[in-house]
């Protein structure tokens, strides 16, 4: 079932007496999370007019989100969808329309998930003295057909600059995990390759990483994993499209003023 189809299962209205904007809000978030948004400096409820629409409490699901050092409580609305109560309360203080509020919540959740995943995987690699970028670079070297590769290829794989990858390889070389040797196909160039210690380290780290990935992604169904992949790439495509459009607009405006 698609996300849109699942969302359609939400009640059409929280109450026959609620119409218009508030009815639409209730369809999106038909629980007390809509009703109990309290400003830190203003104790009154924003939604006084509909504060008794729904009385059943939301189901709390404790989850630690990396960043800020505090555990945020993620809850479940009556339609069965997760939301971050803290984020919603902050956004609702701005009295946003439902579409803007949903956009803010979705982006916040996506970025928080990315940050939490990175922190989780980094923590698991600490026992091996590796950062996540170092781990990925070593995987690239391990899977290189020639037993090593030039640094610019690693930089392209990691999506970083040549300067950054030089520092990364320097750190791995200092640990005795990587070595630089002449490129057999181009004596003027240098390649990086794993040392025997590096081979052993990355093999053990990869085993732990794969186990963590399976545990985290195991909470999703096959359809949800496909949707996650599709939506993530759709957002990447959208940012690229918006960026290209903005560049063209700036170029036209520059020529017009010239």
Summarize the helices and strands and which ones pair or pack.
Blueprint: H1 3-7, H2 20-28, E1 38-39, E2 42-45, E3 59-63, E4 72-76, E5 82-84, H3 85-92, H4 98-125, H5 132-142, E6 149-150, H6 151-158, H7 162-174, E7 178-183, E8 186-194, H8 196-217, H9 222-257
Antiparallel strand pairs: 1-2, 3-4, 4-5, 6-8, 7-8
Helix pairs in contact: 3-4, 5-8, 6-7
Features:
three-stranded antiparallel sheet, disordered N terminus, Arc Repressor Mutant, subunit A, 14% strand, single chain, 54% helix, alpha+beta, 2 domains
Nutshell version of this structure?
This protein has 258 residues and is an alpha+beta fold. It contains 9 helices and 8 strands.
Explain what the structure shows.
The protein is α+β, with helices and mostly antiparallel strands and about 260 residues long. β7 (about 180-185) and β8 (about 185-195) form a beta hairpin. Helices cover about 55% and strands about 15% of the residues. The chain folds into 2 domains: about 1-100, no CATH class; about 125-215, Winged helix-like DNA-binding domain superfamily/Winged helix DNA-binding domain (Arc Repressor Mutant, subunit A), CATH 1.10.10. The protein is built from 9 helices and 8 strands.
């Amino acid at each position: 079932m698609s996300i849109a189809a699942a969302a359609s299962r939400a009640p059409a209205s929280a109450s026959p007496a609620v119409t218009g904007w508030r009815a639409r809000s209730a369809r999106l978030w038909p629980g007390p999370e809509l009703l109990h948004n309290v400003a830190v400096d203003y104790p009154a409820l924003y939604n006084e007019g509909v504060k008794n629409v729904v009385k059943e409490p939301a189901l709390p699901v404790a989850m630690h989100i990396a960043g800020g050092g505090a555990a945020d409580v993620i809850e479940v609305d009556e339609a069965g969808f997760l939301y971050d109560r803290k984020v919603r309360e902050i956004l609702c203080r701005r009295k946003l329309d439902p579409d803007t509020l949903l956009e803010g919540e979705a982006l916040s959740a996506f970025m928080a998930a990315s940050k939490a995943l990175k922190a989780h995987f980094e923590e698991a690699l600490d026992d091996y003295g590796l950062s996540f970028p170092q781990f990925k670079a070593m995987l690239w070297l391990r899977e290189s057909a020639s037993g090593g590769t030039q640094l610019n290829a690693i930089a392209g794989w990691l999506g970083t600059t040549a300067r950054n990858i030089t520092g990364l390889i320097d750190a791995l070389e200092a640990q005795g995990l990587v070595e630089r040797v002449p490129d057999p196909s181009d004596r003027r160039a240098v390649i990086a390759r794993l040392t025997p210690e590096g081979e052993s380290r990355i093999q053990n780290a990869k085993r732990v990483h794969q186990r963590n990935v399976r545990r985290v992604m195991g909470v999703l169904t096959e359809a949800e994993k496909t949707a996650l992949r599709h939506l993530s790439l759709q957002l990447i495509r959208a940012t690229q499209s918006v960026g290209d459009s903005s560049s063209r607009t700036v170029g036209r405006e520059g020529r017009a003023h010239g």
